[in-house]
Design brief:
Layout: H1 12-30, H2 40-65, H3 70-96, H4 100-103, H5 108-174, H6 180-196, E1 203-204, H7 205-223, E2 227-234, E3 241-242, H8 247-261, E4 266-274, E5 279-287, H9 295-299, H10 301-313, E6 318-325, E7 328-336
Parallel strand pairs: 2-4
Antiparallel strand pairs: 1-3, 4-5, 5-7, 6-7
Helix pairs in contact: 1-2, 1-5, 2-3, 2-5, 3-5, 5-6, 5-10, 6-7, 7-8
Length: 341
Amino acid sequence: MTEKINTKGWSYKEVIFQIVLHALVFLFYSMERNQTSIPAYKIAFFLNYAFAAFFINYVLLPRFYYQKKTILFFVIVLLTFIGVIMVEEFILEKIFFTGNRANIFGGILITLSQVLPPIAMLSGFKFGWDALGKQQEVDELKIAVKESELQFLKTQINPHFLFNNLNNLYSYAIEQSPETPEIILELSGLLRYMLYECKEDFVPLTKEVDQLENFISLSEMQVEERGSVKFSTQNILANFKIAPLILIVFIENAFKHSTASQVDNITIEVDLHLSISGTLSFLCKNSFLPKSNTDSLSNGIGLENVKKRLELIYPNAHQLYIQNKNNIYEVRLTIDLATKE
């Protein structure tokens, strides 16, 4: 089986990087005091080093080191250094020098001290370049995973919402209620918003609030004469955006559990306030009776979903408080919308 050498690094950026790097290392290696020109032998020697570095960088690193074949990698690197020394001592020096330097081998350690620095610099910078590239890939992968997870969470919301409201529509249709057409109209508007406008990561705050109002108007039909529903907003501005379908989950839970546990005296209160700095304050309170299964209030799919989305979209930019006390279930959420302008 043939194995392709990793040539992803052959981008124009790396080509420029390698050219500049080789030029700097060559100048560092070849320039000496009181020297007006570069001797030909230093050019030849440096080409020998550069070829070895190229072999290490683009053959040995991707084929062996990055494939976890560490021992084999270092064995071949050692053989490569021996080859460089042999070429320098027994070929290049005989070409460019005469006398003792051409005929006497100065020893492995002395020659290695001359060969090692330029090759180590050329290979070390390449290794660093690859490490930065790998880190960038990891960062991009994390972003992709985060986006995929958010998309998955968003697709979970729509069926959950649709399921609950179709049940309401079914019950009204069975009773042949004259309010059925109004419910269908409200529901179609909400679904249109979810299917088309909520594909974006963020939507204008005013649009999201309009849909919350439509949803409350739709859900209020479940309450009828059994209690009261209050919805108030203050200073909602169009120039701020919010991740869609977050607030609606809390409101949906409020209606679901209040109407399921109480025959009358239902109270539901929703309040939205936007500060000048862009901090959105959301309050949702609903009454319930203890005889109902209140554990599901804080453990439902929708609520766990929205908590996860808040962590992913607004890390360190939101605060969520949920309190269950004196037959009142209260949600307080603040989001710094200015962080996503």
